[in-house]
User: Fold these one by one.
Assistant:
Number 1:
Amino acid sequence: MGMDERKFRILQAIIDDYILTAVPVGSRTISKKYDMGLSSATIRNEMSDLEELGYLDQPHVSAGRVPSAKAYRLYVDQLLKAGRLRADNELAVRDHFLGRTRQLEEVMDHAAQVLSSLTNYTAVVLPPTGTQPRIRNIQLVSVSDNAALAVIVTDAGVVRDAVIRVSEELDQDALYSVSRTLTGELAGKTLSEAVERMPEIIRGMQNQAELLEGFGDVMSTQQQANHPHVAIGGTSNMLSYPEYADMEKARSFLSLMETRDRLADIIGQQGEMSFTVRIGPETGVPEMADCSIVTATYTTGNGQQGTIGVIGPTRMQYSRVLEVMNTMGRQLSELFGTGEDEPLKLE
């Protein structure tokens, strides 16, 4: 006995129904709601076979069946085999980012909120990793008589900014001149290389020493940031699902969401494919035994890759999640300078 087309159609109907209702599914439900041309008795026999094959479980208090992690894995694998995913909610996602800052942390936070809103699950966004980004442009802009905004743009399309305060009044023309000098001296260098170069630049521009020392401090602070930003959106979304009505289970999940370093390690386990889907026990995380994690990558202008992830119950709407993440990956890649117009392809 093995999986055949009829069994798979019945299993797919059970999964679709359970995703929507969270109620164990019986043969009468499938017979009434889905036009399969099969009797309730035939469906019941097939469901018994599916249970024996490990695709269905039977809660002890119910006569209905629920999909197992093995069933969801087959379901997702079939979705991925279907080929390229359509870009879902393209305009909605694009509109969320139009006219917004390209400050990395703010973009990540906003992306996490958009992902969680469009999927109604919990979303996590991790920053690009890999080689250090290199400086592309530096601008110093007066924001008051004694303060300037330092804006550092990297080849990853990432903007870093901070306010520098000085004791003397600032002149915008002088700031333009210093900006050109800094860009000329530091363009193409990493932040760590730029920090090492600053003392020599300061010695050559003693009339702007206080301003340049402040700028050096800004770069040093950015370089020494040891904990990459982890953006989380929609943590409370999970509590709206029956799977987390149990207080102990909900408390365990919320506690995990607060340990951002561990969460980054979990989400960052991205495989070589455009999408990685880990279901239930596949997560390797006890607190997520009833969860699925879907992750995808976005690419910056210098080839660095960041990760976006969605965490939901194992009965999540996989098709919807994959399509929304496909769109989000495109938008973040475009925002950070790759200019890609094609959707992410499945490998």
Number 2:
Amino acid sequence: MRRQLAMSTAVFTAVLGLAACDTEVTATPDKPAAAGDEKPGKEGEKAEQAQEKEAAAKVGDAITLKGFEDEKIEVTVVKVVDPAKSKDEFMTPDDGNRWLGIQFQLVNKGDKAYQDSPTNGMQVADADGQMFQTAFGEITAGPALSSDVRLAPGAKALGWVTFDVPKDVKVSQVQVALNSGMADHTGQWKLQ
């Protein structure tokens, strides 16, 4: 019995370790790589680092994310409103917090239908790595992104997502993952 338990634990640990190996965070926007001169040595390394910094996805850029069932969804951070104002007097940020609104566009670039609750897989962060989740509330900037997105191939969805963050926090990035945040591929955009 002990041997079976030890063997089961070892197999579970190995499978868990292999599953974690596939996680990928993409911070580079979709666009063809620019053909350029390769520079040898330290100058080449500095130029490459500068290109990587410039290539970080920002507001207006699209990143195509992959899901569990080979979904391919192009996600664009369209606009940011900080602070965002509530659409009514009943829904407001928690005391000491403010709302941040981000408009997203999702386009199904795959060859089969896509269904998800995309806001479950969205979070913002500050420069220290503190993460903040979405909030339930509509803002004056525009219509909210649906909590139940269903897209045929080529179809798109557009809407605002609200985040509840402390008033003194400077949000620097947003992350998105498909399949309610469970997919192994995450897109990351700089907001500053």
